[in-house]
């Protein structure tokens, strides 16, 4: 099946208007030796029904599990109404709002998204989105390098290992050093361990960190600011922001995070939505699209892309970033979900997740051989446990019972932890499911 | 000649925050059914925020009405032609949306053990193979989330390749002056230097300028093909040979691949690296600014450097390959925009080998036809392009004072989207029009008629055009003021 519309008669008429006899005449600029004689070795076309069967077959070979995995992607409910609006082709078949007069829907929704991100993070300004939490963190590091003109980056030991890897990828061509600040006994960054110097561009701390632990940012912020560096807070679990003191209030200059739990299904890790917020004085150094309000010639409020002189389409090699297409529709999904949840709804999502996690932790700690990696440090809705047996055996038992029993810590050598499981809880998990998880862990 | 006008929409839609009233809520959330404890016993009070984020408080139907109302102010592909040059705004088949939402895909956690994620990995592996065939290249990464990230991946691959050979002095990347802004921005991001090459009078890369620029410091050439004027770089074989002889690599920005699929392959042209834009060529929706996907195909000498993990197939069993010591590393938190890959896979399987070629042919035919209809009025300084053409409004401006920007705004009154304007930078008053293959002859005629009518208006009643748009949800917006008096988030009233 194809999506072409020309009849043979149309084609003839159009070719005649162009003044050529066949479509191949339009390819005259391509050297003949490059024109393929044979069709590509690809499968034959399929009807819509055949394609649906084929693709559904692929989907069916993926297990649909009761999910206790997190580590940056969380299994939250997406309201039917949010997905319904997201399917409006007015939104999803439009592009970057280059003509604002006919893109007010997209622009206004981004303005609302920016406001919500500011509210969640406690910062002044936010952009229209980044690819994901990991790349948002990398862009925050690049921004800090540019703002401070310094060459050292300090990464917390319990930064999400994938975020760390993406930061490494993004900075490999630059003359900069990536240094680590290891966790203290609490599993979090301690002020005394911070070796911030006049070469430090920024310190990147994730909270809750990769093991789910809440970091104390305020004491770090003072020390970092005294040295003239920026504090970048990475947020891999934005639901925590409903309850926890926002990073902006604790002195973070930039929040780079993941917004997936708002309105976006896990999607095997993408598409999701990177969040980027900063203090107002940094706005001209920010990457990505920013929407601002203004008036039209008749004095009506409207929205436009603003501060475009930062961007690649104007500034080219001096742009703040190379990003162009971002994650617009995923940002809209987040906006829709947050608008429908409202203050109380988001708090309830977070609180149910927290209660589920703490109930589970208490039950798991009753089992022989299980202990929290950091029993004295508060967590929100995700925690790491040591297991008395190889976590792979537990995960296999879980699969037999229809559970994804967490994420194996051994996947993340960068974290330098003993092997074990990282377990996450959302508002979707029930007591019965959690009890089943406990049985799986116990080998019952 | 005009398309459906925008409905009357009233002056301004308030923000969702202005619709908020305390105590309203738009969705129900499960209460915990486990034994609960007060929050302060679970999380010390010093960590808790003093007041909740000020999210709007609206019932579900109010939220739906709000976003439905603002959606009606968007031009979009399902409404009418959206011929943004270099963006390939083609129709987005609806079945793709259904497929991406299947529970086995949408609900799949990225840390699901691979033995129960074989369907996802299988789809990725097969898509990678098909993209490799389309490119005529040996290996593919699906990880980049958009074209610009594909470019970054490509430039980092160049860097890794040269470093592996001890060629550390190769830090200069050649880019023609007609290139997308993402090309130079990406090169700078990767820590390399940009050298801009002038285009020749035919709008192509000047082979002479290339020869002069090539030396032992050149890492490679980034060359869109067909280039941003829509013109095929017909000296491509000579260009590739020169770059390779000088020790550089050839990078193709695949933004314009819609002209070539099934017709000619970047690999045969001598390119070493190409990125795809699945949201352009392979019909995945542009989403108001993403998500896209920017897979990168490479020749075998670059394969060891691809981002990790890659998808590996052994005896029909799929796995993720992390053992890639020369890899440039990860470019995405997980495996890229998987949901976009599902849509592109569905599209490619439906079109199949014959459909992909017909797609390119129809895109080229549509552009040729539209160009033929317009060129008497809007000159083509570099001639007709393949899948897109760049017209100049310079003559019209000289004659009537009406600028390309005015023509673009007036098109909105006719119910169409404007072309890409003022790009490429090397054409005065540029209008880059890309109709794509999914437009009927009648729609192309309506668009041509609208543009010709606007040209006539520019002579008879220029103020009608310079004052446009008149019939859109808002009139021309003061962009200067938006930049001077920054208002980038809703300000809540005090108290």
Main traits of this protein?
A: 444 residues, Aspartate Aminotransferase, domain 1, Aspartate Aminotransferase, domain 2, 2 domains, seven-stranded mixed beta sheet, four-stranded antiparallel beta sheet, 12 helices, 15 strands, 34% helix, globular, B: alpha/beta, 37% helix
Topology readout:
The complex is a heterodimer of chains A (444) and B (495).
Chain A: H1 8-18, H2 48-60, E1 66-67, H3 80-86, H4 89-92, H5 104-121, E2 125-126, H6 133-148, E3 152-156, H7 161-171, E4 177-181, E5 200-206, H8 218-226, E6 230-235, E7 254-258, E8 274-278, E9 291-295, E10 301-305, H9 312-315, H10 328-365, E11 371-372, E12 382-386, H11 391-400, E13 403-404, E14 407-408, E15 421-424, H12 431-442
Parallel strand pairs in A: 1-13, 3-4, 3-5, 5-6, 6-7
Antiparallel strand pairs in A: 2-8, 7-8, 9-10, 11-12, 12-15, 14-15
Chain B: H1 39-42, H2 60-71, H3 94-100, H4 103-106, H5 118-135, E1 139-141, H6 147-164, E2 172-176, H7 182-189, E3 193-197, H8 207-213, E4 218-222, H9 236-245, E5 249-253, H10 266-269, E6 273-275, H11 278-281, E7 296-298, E8 310-314, E9 317-321, H12 338-374, E10 389-392, H13 394-400, H14 404-413, E11 420-421, E12 430-433, H15 441-460, H16 462-466, H17 479-484
Parallel strand pairs in B: 2-3, 2-4, 4-5, 5-6
Antiparallel strand pairs in B: 1-7, 6-7, 8-9, 10-12, 11-12
Helix pairs in contact in B: 3-12, 5-12, 6-7, 12-15
């Amino acid at each position: 099946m194809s999506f072409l519309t020309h009849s043979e008669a149309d084609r003839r008429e159009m070719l005649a208007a162009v003044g050529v006899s066949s479509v191949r005449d339009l390819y005259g600029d391509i050297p003949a030796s490059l024109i393929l004689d044979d069709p590509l070795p690809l499968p034959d076309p399929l009807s819509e029904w055949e394609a649906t069967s084929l693709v559904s077959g692929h989907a069916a070979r993926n297990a649909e599990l009761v999910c206790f995995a997190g580590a940056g992607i969380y299994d939250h409910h997406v309201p039917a109404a949010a997905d319904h609006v997201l399917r409006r082709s007015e939104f999803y078949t439009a592009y970057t709002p280059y003509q604002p007069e006919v893109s007010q829907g997209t622009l206004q929704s981004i303005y609302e998204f920016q406001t919500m991100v500011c509210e969640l993070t406690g910062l002044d300004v936010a952009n229209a989105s980044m690819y994901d939490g990991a790349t948002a963190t990398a862009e925050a590091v690049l921004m800090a390098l540019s703002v401070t003109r310094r060459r050292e980056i300090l990464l917390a030991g319990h930064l999400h290992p994938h975020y760390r890897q993406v930061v490494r990828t993004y900075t490999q061509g630059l003359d900069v050093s990536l240094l680590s600040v290891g966790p203290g006994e609490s599993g979090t960054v301690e002020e005394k361990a911070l070796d911030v110097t006049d070469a430090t561009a920024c310190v990147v701390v994730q909270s809750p960190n990769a093991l789910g632990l809440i970091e104390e940012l305020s004491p770090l912020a003072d020390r970092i600011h005294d040295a003239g560096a920026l504090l970048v807070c990475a947020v891999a679990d934005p639901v925590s922001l409903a309850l926890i003191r926002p990073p902006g209030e604790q002195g973070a200059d930039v929040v780079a995070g993941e917004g997936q739990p708002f309105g976006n299904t896990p999607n095997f890790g993408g598409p999701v939505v990177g969040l980027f917020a900063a203090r107002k004085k940094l706005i001209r150094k920010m990457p990505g699209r920013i929407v601002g309000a203004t008036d039209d010639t008749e004095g009506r409020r409207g929205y436009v892309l603003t501060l475009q002189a930062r961007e690649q389409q104007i500034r080219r090699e001096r742009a703040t970033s190379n990003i162009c297409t971002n994650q617009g529709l995923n940002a809209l999904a987040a906006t829709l979900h947050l608008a429908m949840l409202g203050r109380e709804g988001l708090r309830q999502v977070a609180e149910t997740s927290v209660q589920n996690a703490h109930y589970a932790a208490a039950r798991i700690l009753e089992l022989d051989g299980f202990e929290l990696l950091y029993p004295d440090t508060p967590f929100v809705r995700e925690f790491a446990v040591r297991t008395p047996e190889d976590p792979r055996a537990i995960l296999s038992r879980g699969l037999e019972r229809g559970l994804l029993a967490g994420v194996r810590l051994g996947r993340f050598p960068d974290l330098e932890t003993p092997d074990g499981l990282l377990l996450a809880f959302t508002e979707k998990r029930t007591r019965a499911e959690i009890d089943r998880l406990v049985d799986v862990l116990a080998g019952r | 000649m005009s398309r459906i006008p925008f409905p009357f929409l009233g002056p301004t839609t308030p923000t969702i925050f202005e619709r908020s009233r305390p105590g309203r809520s738009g969705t129900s959330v499960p209460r915990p059914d486990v034994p609960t404890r007060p929050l302060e016993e679970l999380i010390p009070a010093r960590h808790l925020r003093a007041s909740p984020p000020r999210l709007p408080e609206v019932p579900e139907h109010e939220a739906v009405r709000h976003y439905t109302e603002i959606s009606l102010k968007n031009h979009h592909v399902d409404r009418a032609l959206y011929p943004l040059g270099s963006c390939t705004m083609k129709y987005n088949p609806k079945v793709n949306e259904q497929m991406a939402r299947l529970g086995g895909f949408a609900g799949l956690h990225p840390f699901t053990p691979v033995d129960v994620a074989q369907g996802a990995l299988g789809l990725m592996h097969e898509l990678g193979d098909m993209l490799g065939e389309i490119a005529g290249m040996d290996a593919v990464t699906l990880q980049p989330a958009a074209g610009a990230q594909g470019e970054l991946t490509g430039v980092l691959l160049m860097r890794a390749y040269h470093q592996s050979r001890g060629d550390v002095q190769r830090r200069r990347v050649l880019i023609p002056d007609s290139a997308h802004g993402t090309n130079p921005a990406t090169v700078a991001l990767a820590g390399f230097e940009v050298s801009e090459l002038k285009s020749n009078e035919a709008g192509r890369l000047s082979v002479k300028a290339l020869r002069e620029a090539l030396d032992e410091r050149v890492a490679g050439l980034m060359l869109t093909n067909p280039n941003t004027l829509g013109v095929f770089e017909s000296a491509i074989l000579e260009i590739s040979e020169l770059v390779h002889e000088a020790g550089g690599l050839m990078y193709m920005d695949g933004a314009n691949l819609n002209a070539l699929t099934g017709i000619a392959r970047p690999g045969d042209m001598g390119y070493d690296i190409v990125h795809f834009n699945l949201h352009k060529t392979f019909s995945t929706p542009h989403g108001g600014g993403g998500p896209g996907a920017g897979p990168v195909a490479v020749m075998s000498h670059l394969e060891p450097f691809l981002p990790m993990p890659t998808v590996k197939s052994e005896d029909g069993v799929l796995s993720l390959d992390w053992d890639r010591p020369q890899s440039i590393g990860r470019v995405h938190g997980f495996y890229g925009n998987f949901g976009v890959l599902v849509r592109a896979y569905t599209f490619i399987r439906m079109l199949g080998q014959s459909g992909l070629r017909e797609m390119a042919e129809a895109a080229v035919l549509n552009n040729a036809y539209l160009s033929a209809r317009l060129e008497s009025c809007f000159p083509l300084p570099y001639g007709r392009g393949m899948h897109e053409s760049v017209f100049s409004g310079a003559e019209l401006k000289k004659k009537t004072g009406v600028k390309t920007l005015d023509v673009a705004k007036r098109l909105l009154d006719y119910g169409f989207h404007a072309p890409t304007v003022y790009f490429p930078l090397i054409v005065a008053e540029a209008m880059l029009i890309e109709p794509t293959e999914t437009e009927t002859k009648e729609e192309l005629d309506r668009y041509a008629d609208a543009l010709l009518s606007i040209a006539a208006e520019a002579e008879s009643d220029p103020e009608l055009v310079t004052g446009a748009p008149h019939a859109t949800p808002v009139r021309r917006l003061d962009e200067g003021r938006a930049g001077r008096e920054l208002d980038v988030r809703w300000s809540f009233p005090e108290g």
